[in-house]
Amino acid sequence: MSDTIVDIRDLSTVFKNGKKEAVIHQDLNLRIERGEFMSLVGGSGSGKTVLLREMLGLEAPTRGEITVLGKPAAELGKRGAARRVGMLFQHGALFSAFTVLENIAFPLRELKTLPDSLIREAAMVKLQMVGLAPEHADKMPADLSGGMVKRVSLARALIMDPPLLLLDEPTAGLDPESSDSFCALLRSLHRDMELTVVMVTHDLDTLFELSTRISVLADKQVIVSGPPRDVIAFPHPFIRHFFLGERGQRAMELLREYPFTV
Amino acid sequence: MPSPEDDAARESAPHIDPQDTPDGACYLVLGPWTAAELTAQPAWQALTLQLNALDAGAAGTALWDLRQIGQLDHLGAQVLWDHWGRQWPDKLEVLPPQRAVLDRVAQFSADRPEAPVPGLRENFLSLGEGVLKVVDHGADLLALVGRLLLNLIKLVKNPREGPWRDLSGHLYHIGATALPITALVGFLIGVVLAYLISQQLRQFGADAFIVNILGISLIRELGPVLAAILIAGRSGSAITAQIGVMRVTEELDAMRVMGIAHSYRLVMPRAMALAIVMPLISVWTTIAALLGGMLAADLVMGVTPSFFIDALPEAVDAANLTLATAKSVVFGVLIALIGCHFGLRVKPNTESLGQGTTASVVTSITVVILVDALFAVLFKSIGV
After folding, report:
1. In this prediction, does ipTM exceed 0.90?
2. Interface probe, candidates B75, B109, B347, chain A, greatest A C-beta count within 10 A
3. Which segment, A43-57, B61-75, B151-165, is predicted with the most confidence on average?
4. Which of A1, A77, B181, B276 has the CA that lies 20 to 30 A from B70?
5. Which range marks the domain in which residue B40 is found?
6. Is A122 in contact with B347 (Cβ distance < 8 A)?
């Protein structure tokens, strides 16, 4: 098996709205290798989430091809897709009619192979792995706080221990403390489970703390992709604005404190 | 003798290789112990068989060797951990990453207390809960009616501030777009009714009375009820779903924070629109049904349309029309109120939304028929 997990070649995405055409991506190329923690960064409307959705096969690109784990992305939506890719949606996307535990166990239970007791135990382990107490197992998603929804959603994405994990704004809407603990959780999962992670985020703290590689989406393409230090040094107005503004300076302190090891 | 392919298949599946060593039994754990492999039906069956066949007596003392395992994830670790009876075996050889996974499973594996089975007392209490719920629904509905009245007074005092745009939108969506379906259903019911009645009347040679029977039944009863049931199914559900989705997406809360009352902005325009539209739709349905009946009477019994139209005013008292219109207004307001009531009670999840919509349609149709029966009893001496 090759070590390229995601391979995007000459991708173009055009949205047609009536007679207007909006070009989101044009001849975009990106490769993600096994074990990377790659962050996608870009301004609003630069097509980060669209790219993520295309990797999942939820949207079809206009031109070009996307290969995920050696298969075309369009084939991902088939039975048992949860064993290949886990996705953490921005708002959790928990099934509101199921309890927390049923939500987490859902992908496993749908395969109808394993006994119920084993599935329940596996779900309980994942529930506690993401830092939730066992007594939350029987709650309904509507009764959870924002941070807990994210955690449950992460547990559900991880139930089959997929090699690839996609995160859409994992720390958006979390308070700083739960955001920090969520980051620590993601880092330990990435390290222990040899996960490949692709993350879309606007949060610079999260970005510097977790990424082994940053790819910047701007001008409908990936303008630069590399370790955080190289990316910051790249001369482009968006990067100067995004990383070297006031917020960026503060977050960069982190970068100096935690030297990167890949 | 197993073929090489069989061997290869076994190698690529999670399995255990028991070996005898001088120090006792040794279980080599081999293959990929991952969720992806374990959830494949054949692999799981083979593995369960193998695990069950392992010598129970030796399991405690045997050496478990995980060092040559292909992959081990949390589900695989869970399977092993459960097989070990949720404790570490005496002799275990693992590599650090596998140890980390097993550690995590060991730490977090816990029995979840099962929910207690409800006894007689719980059942009795849940019965009371059910009764209280019905009372609660009634009180809520009553409050909704009261608020509607207060809002109407407010509207009369300040007609310029009324939600007129909403009203005109609802008039169109609830009324105008329902015209084709109500006409079709009404027409067909008229045809069916005329055919059935004509068979009976012919036996008595009382052909001309078809005008009386069709006129009274359609104008007084079937027209308004049919229209109300169709509108309850069509618009009652839509009202509940619209308001329910607004609850799910927190739009209702946003509205409240802006100081806009739900009852004024959501309930009143819908109730007003249905109060206006319902009698019109009812008349429209009645006309379609009478046309259908007239056509069928002409075809089957030779009762000509001109005779039909001449005889109709004499057969049906004008009071029936007033009664039908008044009934329709009541039906319309009830459908709107029930739809809004269930919509406002929806909880922010999809299941509650579905239940609310179903309950809304069932309740409004039932209430329409109940109220119709009430009208029939109260006004039995009028117009017949």
Report:
1. no
2. B75
3. B151-165
4. A77
5. 4-108
6. no
B120 inside domain: no
Q: What is the CATH number of domain A35-57+80-257?
A: 3.40.50.300
**B103 at A interface, C-beta within 8 A:** no
Closest residue in B to A128 (Cα–Cα):
B108
- DSSP, res A163: S
Q: Give the model's pLDDT for residue B35.
A: 80
- What is the average pLDDT value for chain A, to the nearest integer? 81
CATH classification at residue B34 = 3.30.750
Count of the separate structural domains present in chain B: 2
Within this chain, do residues B150 and B83 fall inside the same structural domain, yes or no?
Answer: no
Dihedral over Cα of B53, B54, B60, B66: its sign: negative
Domain ranges, ordered by start, for chain A: 35-57+80-257
Q: The tokens of B190 are what?
A: 């008229």
Q: Is B112 on the interface with A (CB under 8 A)?
A: yes
Same structural domain, B223 and B313: yes
How far does A82 lie from chain B, in Å, by closest CA? 9
Residues B49 and B163 in one domain: no
Nearest C-alpha neighbor of B338 from the set B360, B357, B369: B360
Q: Cβ of A125 and B108 within 8 Å?
A: yes
Same domain, B66 and B181: no
Domain assignment present for residue B121? The answer is no
* Residues A73, A71: Cα–Cα separation, whole Å: 6
**Short-list A26, A23, A11, A25, CA closest to A64:** A11
Q: Is the pTM of this model over 0.95?
A: no
Contact B214, B315 (CB under 8 A): no
8 Å CB contact of B78 and A122: yes
